[in-house]
Amino acid sequence: PAGAAVEERKAAEEFVPVPSTLSLDERFELCMAVGEECIQPEELRALLTAKDHPVAYDGFEPSGRMHIAQGLLRTLNVNRLTAAGCVFKFLVADWHAMLNNKMGGDLRKIRKLGQYFVEVWKSCGMNLD
Questions:
Q1: Does the global pTM surpass 0.70?
Q2: How many Å from the N-terminal Cα to the C-terminal Cα in the chain?
Q3: Contact of 92 with 102, CB cutoff 8 Å
Q4: Torsional class of 62: left (φ above 0), alpha (ψ -120 to 50), beta (otherwise)
């Protein structure tokens, strides 16, 4: 609904990231702990030097029950990145789920499932500040 989009935009405009109290080296190590590899570690260090709040993205297609990697591991990684000062944005592939006929292609059910994911992440301890 259009009203939800307006509320979301207002919330984004009012959002003020929490500054990290960690040193550059600590922030770098936390970010490095998230990925299996980093092709250009010097670029990551330069980014963290230049920006207090770099933006990190992750996306998911709401398609059914959440598995452990989606719940606990994503929570651990998001919390590491936000502790390093990153602003985290989730991209919800609800239209993809509809086109892939997840939840019978019912967009209302898919969105409800996306809300369920958020509640699971909260219960796993994800930092949503």
A1: yes
A2: 25
A3: no
A4: beta
